[in-house]
Protein 1
Amino acid sequence: MVLLPDGALIIAEQRKNRLIRFDLHTRSVSTFVNLKNKATQPGVDGITLDTHDPDQISLIIPDSPNGIILRLGLDGKVYSEIANGFSRPTAAWVEKDGSILVVDENARSLSRIHPDGTMKKLAQNLPTPDDVVEDNSGHIFVNTLADGAIHVISVDGGQNTILVSNLASPQGEIIDLEGNLVVTDSGHGRLVKIIIR
């Protein structure tokens, strides 16, 4: 889920393959956009907000079942396709220069889509990657389901080290206001805060 500038939450609802809008003030829920599923895979997994250009804030949607990355205006109507050819993209993160990091769960990879549309693989053979975030120092964190770990990928993709292991189905991660990593350790029913020094 992401928090919009107007204070509403946009939430990815995988089973129905749609995004819903939750208004925190009125407590009302409405469909923001229905996505099309042309495959037999589960629906949309994660979304992120692109704020690198404050005049053109938009949603980035890894269209998981269809293997494409979409940009959606905050009106919920204006789509554009950023990239395609993914197996099952499940999460994205927008970098300071507008590049987009994408994890591809079935292809076991992390890629960077540059603003000019070119792509580069930063990591391969990740054990079922699910989410990706980057901190202000350029550390890229990918949680992986098959080994229950958090991997740190260098900004150029040259290094892949395990930061934390022994998690159970880690799904969802954020960087908190102090620059630390917070991960949902869903198999153990807890949130884990990892102090980044």
Protein 2
Amino acid sequence: MPADNAAAWDRFSEAYQAGARLSADVAHYGPDIGTEADLRLLGDLKGKRVLELGCGGGQCSVAFAKQGATAIGVDHSAEQLAYARRLADDEGVRVELHQADLAELAFVRAESVDLAFSAYALGFVDDLSRVFRQVHRVLKPGSPFVFSLPHPAYNMIDDDADVPLLVRRSYFDRSPIDYEWNGIGFTDYHHTISDIYMALVRASYKVDLLMEPEPLPEGPRSMHWRETFKWVPRTLIVRARKEGF
């Protein structure tokens, strides 16, 4: 039985935020890789309307607001959103926050968003196609959807093993992945690269960038670090632009 990820994040939020210590000055894409300051995938955000899916503690949305964007954050965890509200207040910026499923975007007008962004939240989503369609509805034509998620190849690897390249499951196994983090149960959903690409194409996006960033050569390392990151890509980054109407 898949875990209730929203309830799991409610329980885990305090410990996660204390351990992750994410910056609210720049958008991040995943553990132990470069940030937006290094990758420069989003462009100038001043005056732009930016939607973040799975905003968690709000660090990226706050960073967007600091850069002059109108930032909108969506997350399914009440505790994560409570942290995001406190963070925005502490940083002196306004972020519009909504508790909702990532595919429930009725509160956003059609073709009103200049950029959609998501960092590591889509790995908790079973039906990516539904999310892609809803994001397509709210994006302006030609605008980008930039997102990162756990690299599908990494799901094959047992990163607790002494041998980094010990394969634990088939790349083509699309069954849910249940695991525990600090004794709290979560469920990830495995999508191959072709699954992600075809879902985007069918939802009328044009993919213009795929990245598999290598880990930063120097530390300090995050709470997520495993030596396996040196062998198998941990993060997949995609940029796709809305086509059609």
Protein 3
Amino acid sequence: MSGKVGIVVGAGQTPGETIGNGRATAILLAREGAKVLLVDRDLGSARETATMIETEGGIAHCTHADWTSAEDCHMYARVCLESFGRIDFLHNNVGIGTGDSSALRVEEAVFDKILEVNLKGCLLSCQAVVPVMREQRSGSIVNISSVAAVAAPTNITAYKVSKAGVNALGQSLAIANARFGIRVNTIMPGLMDTPMAIEGIAAARGGAARDEVRARRDQLVPLRQKMGTAWDVAYASLFLHSDEATFVTGALLPVDGGQGARVG
């Protein structure tokens, strides 16, 4: 990634004992030589990520934005151009699932909110950056979806629909922009040991012990019965953004310890 510059949306994270996907990816991209604009609704958390990058000698700038706002998305595209002169990559790592339920029980407001954040925001972010990449005749976009798009319990309807939408969006963008040299790929993480997952489940279960939450999730993973970590997603992201993946576009890459394969 030496000499490349770009944007990581969702570069902060939920407080917790481990590291989140966005933060790990931002750190790894910077570690491999990229200059990174860190975008998050929680500017303080983005700044924590920036400090980690700068401590290792990397370069990172921060900006506050809500990607459900088209204006905010265009703002951070503009900030990246003003800061670094180009946008070589866009990494979209934002998602929520709070309040979700089965298809007959999910509330309309919850359904709308999850789709707004998970799918509409991803679309708006891409719409803000793709024109810049078209002018450059190059660029890499990686969207973080979820294996829930293809393998999920029945009680997360809105989340599943939103992530299936992210998968479809990525493939549509890949085909529409291939002639401009823009690659668009999608990662589908499985069960990961991240603060958003563990802390969220523990809170939803009335303060359940985190070790208990981890043990239950570990048992659902075919590969060694152990969840992945944010670094697994980060290394997959690094490959897809790198020059080693110049012939890869429109891919849906599971990083899930075999969950998707088990479902078939």
